[in-house]
Amino acid sequence: MTAVAAAPVRLARRPEPLARAVAMPEEGPLVDTFGRVHTDLRISVTDRCNLRCTYCMAEVGEIFRPRDEILTFDEIERVARIAFSLGVTAVRLTGGEPLVRAGLADLVARLSALGFADLALTTNGTALARLAPALRAAGLDRVNVSCDSLRADRFARIRRRGELGRVLAAMDAAEEAGLRPVKVNVVLQRGVNDDEIVDFAEFGRATGREVRFIEFMPLDSEGSWAADAVVPSAEVIARLAAYSPLAPVWRDSTDVAPATVYQFVDGGGRIGVVATVSEPFCGTCNRLRLTADGAVRNCLFSDDELSVRDLLVGGASDDAIARVLRRAVWGKRAGHGIGEAAFVRPVRTMSMIGG
Ligand code: SAM
Ligand code: SF4
Prior knowledge:
Layout: E1 30-31, E2 37-38, E3 40-44, H1 73-85, E4 90-94, H2 104-114, E5 118-123, H3 128-138, E6 142-146, H4 152-159, H5 164-177, E7 182-188, H6 197-207, E8 210-215, H7 233-243, E9 246-248, E10 260-264, E11 270-274, E12 287-290, E13 295-297, E14 305-307, H8 309-313, H9 318-330, H10 350-353
Parallel strand pairs: 3-4, 3-12, 4-5, 5-6, 6-7, 7-8, 8-11
Antiparallel strand pairs: 1-2, 9-10, 10-11, 12-13, 13-14
Residues 49, 51-53, 56-57, 95-97, 124, 146, 351 line the site of iron/sulfur cluster (SF4).
């Protein structure tokens, strides 16, 4: 049986640099020295979380930023407005757990009013059932809900404080509220939950939700990441294809989403893989990040960051803040370099940066 119909379009691993003499543009879109145009902004609204997932946070001893160092909604809205004026079209709210930030629907309403084409949120789902109607009413388009096991005991072990039933109910509630599509994020770890790949595919087929298998990244707070704990996306696809034939969903060159998406040939739904480690898609990366404490980062894996918080607090002009966004993007490296000898884990971990 032909398991995978054809190889999907591969996103470029490394971009080609622009000519050396090019200077940072003072107008136009947010572009880096490799010509990558940045249109996707990840906003972390808090570094705090009500869970302690093993692959993300330490069970005890996490140190959070003092609340008075976290950007206010006014400050976040202002940066988002400036980013919008520079061509950002998509915003994702994340954290930490974004839904532990009080009054988040108010921020969603403010961002929605700015006119982004796509306003999404990534959540662990614990508070989503309660908040989904208000978030939708405020203008949120869709959610990704993280769920790493369909077995209650294992789910609780991985997320340490989570409860599977509550998260599954939250997915239903989100859909009922109109937050569609609900996508399900699964971080795979070898020997931890990789025996559930087919179970998740069946879950996705039964619910009509796209399950996205994410490779474990070296961003966990406990430093337990190891290359052999990563389940390469190619292996995920091969295992799923043995279960039911898959065909890649073709995309044109303007589609630079990190997940490579496949469709079951029998029409039974889609799955996505995010191959950050094994097949980096840095060549087409269009993302920049705003941390909860006001740092602009151009890559999850780079320590290079520029703070806008002092500018915001000090009453700087929009132009000055725009220039920080431009400089952050302009300084982006070709790729994250995981797997290379020179790679060093970033100081900030996933929950501090915003995944
Ligand atoms: N708290 C929310 C959640 O869990 O969905 C949003 C923030 S979380 C940092 C964003 C995403 O990053 C989640 O899907 C989570 O599973 C994923 N994540 C966290 N640590 C990771 C790691 N070390 N490698 C890969 N993905 C990770
Ligand atoms: Fe919290 Fe999300 Fe990190 Fe889990 S993955 S500890 S829910 S921020």
